[in-house]
Amino acid sequence: MSCWMPGCPALSMCRGLAALPITCLERAKDLKTRLGILLHKPELGHKTGSSSKLQLGSSRRDSSREVLEWRESFDQLLKSKSGVNAFHTFLKTEFSEENLDFWLACEDFKKTRSKTKLASKANRIFEEFVQSEAPREVNIDHETREITRKNLSGATSACFNEAQAKTRTLMEKDSYPRFLKSASYQDMTKQAAGRGTSKRV
């Protein structure tokens, strides 16, 4: 993770200090997420979710029922391609889309059959998302990071299972409830309900 808050003496030492307590890094990520939310609140004059409206509102293939099903459970959202797209657009406004990208990369990784490709893909995913100070580092604890590192020595389709599960839980408990309350999703549900009413008339 790169240090992004100017003037913070603790964070300015993060780069290159592997011994820095993991709680500092987790706190920094939490602050980054919170700052992203504040920057994108409608009352601060920023319109959020406009791209997701274009992406989903204009797609006739999205059934009204499907959009409404996304609020039933996080699983329902992840099963829907358009739901994943809408959630990804929302996560971008919070600067935390790496969590979903990692989860999707793990899902794709599990489908790999070639042992040679499995090993190279595993290393690529680890370097991009899991290792300390990775370009798109996901917010997992040190123990899970180390377990995943050890799993790479004999890469199997299950080597990211624990890290993927931790990231999924984080999204389900943290980002998903905010997505359901977001203006963009509320607009989608209103449009879906409107389409459902017009069909019945």
Automatic annotation (TrEMBL):
Residues 1-19 form the signal peptide. One of its GO terms (molecular function) is GTPase activator activity. One of its GO terms (biological process) is negative regulation of signal transduction. PROSITE patterns: RGS. It is a lipid-anchor. The gene is Rgs16. Regulates G protein-coupled receptor signaling cascades. Inhibits signal transduction by increasing the GTPase activity of G protein alpha subunits, thereby driving them into their inactive GDP-bound form. Plays an important role in the phototransduction cascade by regulating the lifetime and effective concentration of activated transducin alpha. May regulate extra and intracellular mitogenic signals. The keyword Transferase does not apply. GO terms for cellular component: membrane. This is Regulator of G-protein signaling 16. It is found in: Membrane.
